[in-house]
């Protein structure tokens, strides 16, 4: 009878266990990402102020303007809509889905200094731009400084 010697390798199974754990987490997160893309999402928004107005820009490509719901209630601006998943292409033909789909709603508090009654909404190249004018009393006013000449000041003091 012949005895076979095998070298003891205490960490031999660890790498395969580590690989299995990594694969498990990878598959879970990838699946979770795909499912999240088909549920609620929030479009990116920029808000900035000019002397005349407050401007809100939202990235909402592939949404028809008539399907947007924009409203102001109790000084809260709300933008709602839905980006629908394209059914023209068979779902099995997609190799990757990274864009988010589904309903969205974004709300922002407005200051009392804006005139919510006069909001203008424009939609161009997938960007919604809301221009909210400031109330007249909130707009900056320049005050003229009257400068008195030295001769007039001397005459007034006599």
The gist of it:
The protein is α+β, with helices and mostly antiparallel strands. It is built from 2 helices and 7 strands; from the N terminus they run H-E-E-E-E-E-E-E-H. The protein has a domain at 36-138: Immunoglobulin-like (Sandwich).
Describe what you observe in this structure:
By secondary structure, the protein is α+β, with helices and mostly antiparallel strands. The protein has a domain at 36-138: Immunoglobulin-like, CATH 2.60.40.790. It is built from two helices and seven strands; from the N terminus they run αβββββββα. It has helices at 12-37, 150-156; strands at 45-49, 53-59, 69-73, 76-83, 102-109, 120-124, 127-133. A four-stranded antiparallel sheet has the order 1-2-7-6, with no helix packed on it. Strands 3-4-5 form a three-stranded antiparallel sheet, with no helix packed on it. A hairpin with a 2-residue loop joins strand 6 and strand 7 (127-133). The longest helix has 26 residues, at 12-37. Mean pLDDT is 79; it is low at 31-39.
Instruction: Note the overall shape.
Output: elongated
Classification by helices and strands: alpha+beta
Give the SSE order as H and E letters.
HEEEEEEEH
Sequence of strands across the biggest β-sheet: 1-2-7-6
- Give me the number of helical elements: 2
CATH class of the domain at 36-138: Mainly Beta
Low-confidence residue ranges: 31-39
Described by strand count, sense and barrel closure, the largest sheet is: 4 strands, antiparallel
How does CATH name the architecture of the domain at 36-138? Sandwich
């Amino acid at each position: 009878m012949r005895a076979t010697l095998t070298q003891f390798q205490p960490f031999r199974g660890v790498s395969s266990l580590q690989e299995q754990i990594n694969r498990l987490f990878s598959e879970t997160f990838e699946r979770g990402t795909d499912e999240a893309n088909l549920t609620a999402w929030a479009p990116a928004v920029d808000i900035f102020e000019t002397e005349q107005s407050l401007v809100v820009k939202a990235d909402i490509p592939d949404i028809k303007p008539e399907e947007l719901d924009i409203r102001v209630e109790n000084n809260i601006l709300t933008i709602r809509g839905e980006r629908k998943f394209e059914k023209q292409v068979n779902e099995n033909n997609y190799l990757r889905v990274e864009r988010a789909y589904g309903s969205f709603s974004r709300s922002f508090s407005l200051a009392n200094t804006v005139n919510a009654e006069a909001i203008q909404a424009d939609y161009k190249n997938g960007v919604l731009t809301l221009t909210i004018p400031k109330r007249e009393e909130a707009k900056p006013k320049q005050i003229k400084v009257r400068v008195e000449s030295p001769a007039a000041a001397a005459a007034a003091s006599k």
